[in-house]
Specification:
Layout lengths: L1 E5 L10 H13 L3 E5 L4 H13 L4 E6 L1 H11 L6 E5 L5 H5 L7 H10 L2 E11 L4 E4 L2 E5 H11 L6 H11 L6 E9 L4 E8 L1 E5 L21 E6 L4 H13 L8 E12 L4 E4 L2 E5 L2 E13 L9
Parallel strand pairs: 1-2, 1-3, 3-4
Antiparallel strand pairs: 5-6, 5-15, 7-10, 7-13, 8-9, 8-12, 10-11, 11-12, 12-15, 13-14
Helix pairs in contact: 1-5, 2-3, 6-7
């Protein structure tokens, strides 16, 4: 087997080149032909990855976090080329969804060398101009996309705590946003939601922001997406409810609505959505499930906690 191992030195929090070199050495020790590819920008990394795929690499691996994984899935979604992840980024929520979060670099490389794969869903975003992109974890819009804006501008601290601090700071200016939401539910019926929302979130995976279970029941292999809509409440009330969000028990809060959907269309003025931690487009956007679109090297799926 030959593997193209992508590392993006422009990724937030550092280049993770040490993890890439360690993983490459481990893969080669297993007899896996491994080439490290690294661009100075997301665009350059994408071009190098496309070249490796055109040359016939058997698999793609990523040493980094959700943003670098996102670069890879744009190129291999629907191709059958398997993806391996060496989770070493600022946020590793997609790796978490695949059961890889607790693996060290050696174990993650060993999982690739073992060759065990399964297929999972992706979510597909279609913009108003007809262009589209995939994401693996969660699309955030509204309050949580503003949190992403703030977190991305912060140089300290690294890791998930940066997102948590940005979240608390954004509470100071929290307001409702007028949304129009169109949902195609799991049973094929449709639902329309109009009015002020604090946020509208669409999840293929359970977590974002380095482990926050915003879509606690999401399963990236069930052929559906999970939508979480939050209506306005007083700042102090929402602040008191934050521990429920971190525990994944916010579904019973009156201001929170959760739906299992095949697709969702989100519209709101002046809102840019984030997916896999990076901007993906201004609303309105349509998000639908791309069932079984990605093959991954991963341990067998485990039942959810509880």
């Amino acid at each position: 087997m030959s593997v193209a191992l992508l590392v993006n030195p422009a990724a937030r929090g550092g280049g993770h080149t040490g993890a890439a070199v360690h993983a490459a050495d481990r893969l080669r020790a297993h007899g896996v032909k491994t080439a490290i590819i690294s661009g100075g920008s997301a665009a350059e990394s994408t071009e190098l990855l496309r070249a490796a795929i055109a040359l016939g690499t058997d698999a793609v691996a990523v040493a980094g976090g959700d943003g670098t994984v996102n670069l890879a899935i744009q190129e291999i979604a629907g191709t059958g080329i398997p993806l391996g992840i060496i989770p070493s980024g600022t946020g590793n929520d997609f790796a978490t969804a695949l059961g890889l979060r607790e693996l060290d670099v050696t174990a993650a490389a060993d999982a690739i060398a073992a060759g065990t794969t399964r297929t999972v869903d992706l979510a597909r975003v279609t913009r108003e101009d007809g262009s589209s992109a995939y994401f693996g974890t969660v699309l955030a819009s509204g309050f949580d996309s503003k949190v992403n804006d703030r977190a991305n501008a912060m140089r300290w601290p690294r890791g998930g705590s940066r997102y948590n601090i940005a979240l608390l700071l954004e509470f100071a200016t929290l307001t409702g946003i007028p949304y129009e939401v169109e949902l195609e539910l799991a049973d094929g019926t449709r639902e329309h939601v109009a009015g002020d929302l604090v946020m509208a979130t669409v999840g293929n995976g359970r977590t974002y922001g380095g482990g926050i279970p915003i879509c606690p029941d999401a399963d990236p292999a069930d052929g559906l997406l999970d939508v979480v809509l939050v209506r306005p409440a007083g700042r102090l009330r929402l602040l008191r409810l934050l521990p429920r969000v971190y525990a994944g028990t916010h579904g019973t809060i009156p201001e929170v609505a959760m739906r299992r959907v095949r697709s969702a269309r989100l519209s709101a003025p002046g809102v840019t959505a984030y997916a896999d931690g990076d901007p993906i487009g201004a609303l309105p956007l349509t998000i639908d499930v791309a069932a079984r679109a990605l093959t991954v090297f991963a341990p067998p799926a485990q039942p959810p906690d509880g």
